[in-house]
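Hi D.,

Good news: the full-assembly prediction came through. Inputs first.
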Amino acid sequence: MSQANGGPGAPAPGPLAILCGAGAFPLEVAGEARRAGRDPFLVGVVGATDSAIEAYPHVWVRMGEVGKLFAALKGRAIAEMVIIGAMTRPEFADLRLDWGAVKRAAGLAQLFRRGDNGLLAGVAAIFEREGVRVVGAHEVAPRLLAPVGPIGARMASDEDEIDIALGARLLGALSSFDAGQGAIVAAGRVLAIEAAEGTDAMLERVADMRANGRLRLAGLAGVLVKAPKRGQDLRLDMPAIGPKTIEGAVKAQLRGVAAAAGHVLILGRERCAREADTAGLFVAGFGHAPPAG
Amino acid sequence: MSQANGGPGAPAPGPLAILCGAGAFPLEVAGEARRAGRDPFLVGVVGATDSAIEAYPHVWVRMGEVGKLFAALKGRAIAEMVIIGAMTRPEFADLRLDWGAVKRAAGLAQLFRRGDNGLLAGVAAIFEREGVRVVGAHEVAPRLLAPVGPIGARMASDEDEIDIALGARLLGALSSFDAGQGAIVAAGRVLAIEAAEGTDAMLERVADMRANGRLRLAGLAGVLVKAPKRGQDLRLDMPAIGPKTIEGAVKAQLRGVAAAAGHVLILGRERCAREADTAGLFVAGFGHAPPAG
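Then the structure:
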């Protein structure tokens, strides 16, 4: 760490890089960071990041332009970075490796082995080795975290709470497998478990199963439960929900969406609450003790 | 039990009812039972069972015609039954309850509560209460069980064995949740976990993710692992693979299909082996100690 901290583990003041994946989440984090007095510098990935990041000081890099990225950070004396937004796992062959990447080739090659946790942990290690501390979006923008309790008008019923607890136990049992961060449970029955397809595709699957009669449930039924994996580095890969999640939950005719309080980011919280209210769904954080890990 | 047994747990000789779900599996079991000297009597469910069962002595019942079913069994002095083939979980409102069903209404109502294990265990209990012993397809047709090792020309590689072991551990961790019986693992990464959608839909999902670039894997990659849930009553709901599974695995460009030896049925074994050989996949049983219940 090349900068003094406000306290142990607290984000340093000063400039903050935001490595931006796809979607609107990076901009929301940038806004929160600026409100907190930080000076955000956004790094866009060509082909992935929304061009709206250009509203902030920014640089564009291609996947693999590691040298260009570090030069941009060092030129601005940036010692902290948030990684946020959806990233497609790249194929090694697609990378445009620059000299800065080739110099770090051994470390990069190790990234292309295992599950997502391994990939992201390796990315973080490479940054930290260069003196850039990777911090979590929740550290620079804690207002984006799921609270305990509902964010809209509806609350989870007692029956919903039982499904939420079952989903949370299921995700806990799965979490050492570096698989998914979500499951859908209806009245004690596990309808869907997320792996590589992601939350949106899982919601779509439940909507399809209800439409084609494979799942026959009356009215609103089922709860989407989101929680981090055991040992998941929240600085790198925090589970998140947003308006698209709510839209998917509405199409799947769920009763609600439950996110581990303090461990899941909520993007577009007001819009999420409004859309859930309109459809009669609850969106709520549930008390979550991270599993030992 | 109203009939003498050949030994503890061994199927009694004499007539055997086969309650037939969808697909060709019931006919295969009937053929094996006849080869073993049993006298199969097939029960078709209107709207679900293939009419090909009419090649055997049979009766058709509608969902809910419980009285008619028991009368047919008693009229033929049948004291043993196999339940086999895909069954859609019926909605209570769709049942055509006859007087025999109404008499047993309390027991039937309890079936419409929880996961599949609960449903099937309740069905079995109702039959046993009427003096009809429910036996497993594996007891009357053991030649349909997955062996240890390959059924075709290809064998699992050492890397495949690592994926198979990971998939088996994952299914073990999940099994107390009465969810799925399958997962797809590629080089240590969990690609898909089965719940209510079933194995065929899970295979299709992986094929789709590879086609749309969400999963970028080179060549044949990944293994489908099938194993029973903990405490799963194999008489009622034994995991099964068949030519459709192989077809799905080929479309998903998997390296192979692995089934818990002695705990998974293989339908159309020769066709499975032939189609897997043609596509360069392995189909193999793996040594499986059933998890403590």
